[in-house]
Amino acid sequence: MVVEDAAARYDQSRLARCGFYLELSSAAALTGLRKLVSESVIVPDAAVVLVGTSSGFSEFQSFSHLIAGIA
Predict the structure, then answer these.
(1) How many CB atoms lie under 10 A from the CB of residue 32?
(2) What's this model's pTM, rounded to 2 decimal places?
(3) How far apart are the first and last CA of the chain?
(4) SS in 3 state form for 10-50?
(5) What is the pLDDT at residue 59?
(6) 33 close to 3: Cβ distance less than 8 angstroms
């Protein structure tokens, strides 16, 4: 599964707001899942497991805006 960097960065930000700050390659698992659901390869209510093995702190990435926390 190939996903665009911009889509993976969007999902990385979404996961970080939920308390899961993952490296881009780990966040891309969610991007791939969303792509498979949109292509009807996986049904929307399927039970899936995504494994995030790398912390976002292991890579340098500058954000143009702070990632807002969950209130």
Answers:
(1) 18
(2) 0.75
(3) 34
(4) HHHHHHHHCCCCECHHHHHHHHHHHHHHHCCCCCCCCCCCC
(5) 67
(6) no
